[in-house]
Amino acid sequence: MSSFWSIFISVITLGTILGCFLLLRWCLKNMTGVEEGDDMHHEFDGIVEINNPLPRWWTIMFYVTIVWGIIYLALYPGLGNFAGLLGWKSSNQDVQSLEESRAATKQALENGELVEYDRQMQQAEERFGPIFEAYAKRDVTDLANDPEALKVGQRLFLQNCAQCHGSDARGMRGFPNLTDDAWLYGGNPEQIRTTLLQGRQGVMPGWIDSYGEKGIKEVVAYTLSLSGRKVDPELAEAGKSRFAACTACHGQDGKGNYAMGAPNLTDNIWLYGGSEKAVTETLTHGRNGVMPAWEKILGEDKIHLLTAYVYSLSQEQ
């Protein structure tokens, strides 16, 4: 925060507290010209106004809140760039990466700083760390049949994965459905765990420069025919020879390749849409899908449990 805004906020904050104090003092003075307890000669619907002072309990409470406000602003951050006498802060500010966050946490601990986020994370690790550690010692297939373990895994999924795959794990355009048996990189426990730990990056190049518009139409027709779709047979036959360039990833039979994350083109399950228009767009411009790595964020123990949950989703089919 710049010095201008720091001063501006401080003046507004302290000025408001001072204004409340002065207003209270002004209200405590009898400026009506009428003795306290006497009739103010105002009457409405049988109700007569009396010149009574502010209740003492109310006045004391108001003074207490003013004093408390000043003490709070002195101890905790709230006045612009002033950090407070206790050195407390809600979190390490201005960090832009996980590495910077961890470095800031380490530095705060070394300097004895009171960082609320770090304190809560430490408490959570002390409380829940042994639970995840115990789950990590069990086999994934065993955890996949444990209702209590799956409840914990579901919470991890909702907190970290639902933004892309949906709360029901059925995915959306560009994000895989995790409840079926169509896997880009394989659906056994070890493959799922590797995906979660290391992340994935799937690149489908654009072919417009190589094939041209006519060639794209031919390959689209052949690609759609692989899943049993009705297409122009002449276009499909012409696209079959062009598809040879695609077999390096998708295989000669079009059934894909787990090692490269190349999807199966024969099951009529499409990550970016299976309409002729969508497939044409994919072949023309290509696709670039990224699954982030979660090892440094969640740690191996939590990922082990999350693997069991994701694995269980496709086993229910």
UniProtKB/TrEMBL annotation:
<keyword id="KW-0249">Electron transport</keyword>
<keyword id="KW-0406">Ion transport</keyword>
<dbReference type="InterPro" id="IPR008168">
    <property type="entry name" value="Cyt_C_IC"/>
</dbReference>
<feature type="transmembrane region" description="Helical">
    <location>
        <begin position="60"/>
        <end position="79"/>
    </location>
</feature>
<dbReference type="InterPro" id="IPR032858">
    <property type="entry name" value="CcoP_N"/>
</dbReference>
<keyword id="KW-0813">Transport</keyword>
<feature type="domain" description="Cytochrome c">
    <location>
        <begin position="234"/>
        <end position="314"/>
    </location>
</feature>
<keyword id="KW-0677">Repeat</keyword>
<dbReference type="InterPro" id="IPR036909">
    <property type="entry name" value="Cyt_c-like_dom_sf"/>
</dbReference>
<dbReference type="InterPro" id="IPR050597">
    <property type="entry name" value="Cytochrome_c_Oxidase_Subunit"/>
</dbReference>
<dbReference type="Pfam" id="PF13442">
    <property type="entry name" value="Cytochrome_CBB3"/>
</dbReference>
<keyword id="KW-0472">Membrane</keyword>
<keyword id="KW-1003">Cell membrane</keyword>
<dbReference type="Pfam" id="PF14715">
    <property type="entry name" value="FixP_N"/>
</dbReference>
<comment type="similarity">
    <text>Belongs to the CcoP / FixP family.</text>
</comment>
<keyword id="KW-0408">Iron</keyword>
<protein>
    <recommendedName>
        <fullName>Cbb3-type cytochrome c oxidase subunit</fullName>
    </recommendedName>
</protein>
<keyword id="KW-0479">Metal-binding</keyword>
<keyword id="KW-0375">Hydrogen ion transport</keyword>
<keyword id="KW-0812">Transmembrane</keyword>
<dbReference type="InterPro" id="IPR009056">
    <property type="entry name" value="Cyt_c-like_dom"/>
</dbReference>
<dbReference type="InterPro" id="IPR004678">
    <property type="entry name" value="Cyt_c_oxidase_cbb3_su3"/>
</dbReference>
<comment type="function">
    <text>C-type cytochrome. Part of the cbb3-type cytochrome c oxidase complex.</text>
</comment>
<dbReference type="InterPro" id="IPR038414">
    <property type="entry name" value="CcoP_N_sf"/>
</dbReference>
<feature type="transmembrane region" description="Helical">
    <location>
        <begin position="7"/>
        <end position="26"/>
    </location>
</feature>
<keyword id="KW-1133">Transmembrane helix</keyword>
<keyword id="KW-0679">Respiratory chain</keyword>
<comment type="pathway">
    <text>Energy metabolism; oxidative phosphorylation.</text>
</comment>
<keyword id="KW-0349">Heme</keyword>
<comment type="subunit">
    <text>Component of the cbb3-type cytochrome c oxidase.</text>
</comment>
<keyword id="KW-0997">Cell inner membrane</keyword>
<feature type="domain" description="Cytochrome c">
    <location>
        <begin position="148"/>
        <end position="227"/>
    </location>
</feature>
<keyword id="KW-0560">Oxidoreductase</keyword>
